[in-house]
Amino acid sequence: MMSVLDILRRIEGGETTAENAIRATMEAIASKEDEIRAFARANADARAGAAGPLCGIAIGVKDIIDTADFVTEMGCPAIYGGWQPRGDAAIVTALKQAGATIAGKTKTTAFAASDAPDTRNPHNLAHTPGGSSSGSAAAVGAGVLPLALGTQTAGSVIRPASFCGAYAIKPSYRLIPTVGVKCFSWSLDTLGLFAGGIADLAYGLAALTGRGDLKLAAAGNAPRIGVVAQYFAGDPDPDGQAALDRAAQAAERAGATVRTIALSDIFGQAWRAQHIIQTFEAKHAFGWEYSERYHDVPPGIRRTLDSAQKIEPAAYDDARRIAHRVRRAMNDVFADIDVLLTFSAPGPAPSGLDSTGDAKFNRLWTLMGMPCVNVPGYVASGNLPVGVQIVAPFGQDDRALYAARFVDEALKKL
Amino acid sequence: MMSVLDILRRIEGGETTAENAIRATMEAIASKEDEIRAFARANADARAGAAGPLCGIAIGVKDIIDTADFVTEMGCPAIYGGWQPRGDAAIVTALKQAGATIAGKTKTTAFAASDAPDTRNPHNLAHTPGGSSSGSAAAVGAGVLPLALGTQTAGSVIRPASFCGAYAIKPSYRLIPTVGVKCFSWSLDTLGLFAGGIADLAYGLAALTGRGDLKLAAAGNAPRIGVVAQYFAGDPDPDGQAALDRAAQAAERAGATVRTIALSDIFGQAWRAQHIIQTFEAKHAFGWEYSERYHDVPPGIRRTLDSAQKIEPAAYDDARRIAHRVRRAMNDVFADIDVLLTFSAPGPAPSGLDSTGDAKFNRLWTLMGMPCVNVPGYVASGNLPVGVQIVAPFGQDDRALYAARFVDEALKKL
Predict the structure, then answer these.
(1) According to DSSP H, which parts of B286-351 are helical?
(2) What are B340-352's pLDDT values in tens digits?
(3) How high is the ipTM of this complex?
């Protein structure tokens, strides 16, 4: 995969220029685009941005994120074909201010829900890249893009990252403002980053948020890791279990304290509450599309919205109360561990392009607003990557990244 | 003032039709528009909507709320002139589904900040109607509109309602989804309603949220009221104090338990934190306007955004932590009272149209996400109304409305 830090080092060392680095990335994108179909539209005029921490870095922007310079079609041209926002989303302004270049708008499932684009998994073209941040995950996983933006409401950053072998972080809820991002569920929607390594994620997140403390310390203590199976969510595939076992073993060999954690029933309640909150809020967020453009709403999200009409406010209020209670209970889980280690996805990417896979192992953490990092490191048959997920307490994004780097290095040493 | 319930009763009783009721409202608006200038644009084709709880009711929609059928200029035509959103905001879909008619887009300060429109106070044209929901408050206060939408980030619903003698509710944070509303501060922005009476507010809120339990019970116990001066926010004008004293006295005479509550220092900390949160989030929310259209940003909000550039993430994080802590502490305040009674604004509307007044008595409650209701009932010299504010715990919007009705009836009996 491409490396943000590597590109910046080469620019700084005089091996290349920011302008050439952008050109090289755009050429790499073009060379694979026929195969993986990651972009709704590439930036034909991509040039290096102003001086800044990301000058020379081309970034993919998921096509539900408003851009003043590109149409934003939400993965649903039937309703948003040719739609040109007046302004940029807050995160797009942040990336321009950091000197980054928009590589283009990356393909998304319709409205970041379940109707898949034609994007293909870069490691096996017969398989889905996952979703909803399909194009961002595929382009980074393919090694043609150093950094990309995605969004997660259930599992739309971590799951496609796992399927495509990319590193990714879904930060703490609203660490990155979602202003100018098409809303699915205001309590859950979270912007995230895909990159070629943990240090790139930390650097990118620091550059885009102005939070320098997210840059990783050089070294430190081995983390105390709690491994969670999330039984309430059902079982993983054998490859998903193997990837988790391998990561746990690698971390332990590298000096981490690793033990299994059992989450009590209330976490299962919260896991179920996530779906109610997501669906109830989607009913309101897509109120106009559903009531005025029903027949243009793609079938997957339309079914979701059909079912959403039946959810009463009282059920939603109950779900929110459960979430509130479980966020507090989560503190106890971290009494004597630093991070959790769990599945990023049930297993490798499903075959075909119709289904983008199952977010069941992501829902709880998104609801809790906790930072999650995907670490690749296992490859199933068919050349299909399977990642694992590091989860830290809300607001401890640096801790999540630190532990993810530890596990990543441990896996590379195995 | 016009009454929603009255109009509906007359339609149901056959005294008028929904179509005629809409026409009458539009004529009333037109008859006063030269004087009060409440509308950015009125709906020239206003007709009765589909059958529903608000059929026959024309509603003013603040011009930072997206409408598929009307341009939405954010009070800033220099940047958003002629801007036509593709879809309706979630609340606009809800009002159409309830059968309501959009009376037009009401004037707002630029981006719901401090740069005032030319709207005038209906009770004294030499005075401001307040802001930022200037047109909505003025039109309802003038008696030419039965219902209107506003938004509050600091005090932009309750304060102009007080100045214009309108009833208004700023509900619990996100009781009404803000999807499709121009974001100022995602942690604070709250949609609210203006109407001619408490029963209208309850009815409108129930119709727009599908929460039937917000319709008020016919009778019940006299509320236990805590009167709070908010010393940390500074002093009110003598008229503001007189309005509060009068309301407290009226409530007590009508049988309420009324006692003074002193809020501890941490509430003052939260009051100060509100400003930091609002300003830091505005920096991100208006990132595109500030960085790409700086000279078109009106001077008041530009100054705010200039100062916002200096706020560090750490200061914002501290402010959020304070808010989180104080939300919990707020529970203790309500141990033996039902609602708080405090100032809606420091006093009557300032003279002139340049300043929309001071939100200092509204900031804390917006930060806490608590439902607030303005109850008119006092008139200062110059024919200027001064309201009082009822505040209930988060999620207890029905309690806020119930107590507000009690105080309102008590004031009318004085």
Answers:
(1) 287-292, 299-308, 313-333
(2) 999 999 999 999 9
(3) 0.97
